[in-house]
Amino acid sequence: MKIAIISDTHDNIPNIYKALNFIKKQGAEMIIHCGDICAASVMLEIAKKFSGPAHFLLGNVVSDEKTLKKKSEEVKNALVYYKEPVKLRVDNKKIAITHYPDIARQLAESGHFSYVFYGHNHRPWIEKIDDTYLINPGTLGGLFAKPTFALWNTAEKEPRLILLEQLP
Question: 3-class SS at 115?
Answer without folding.
Answer: strand
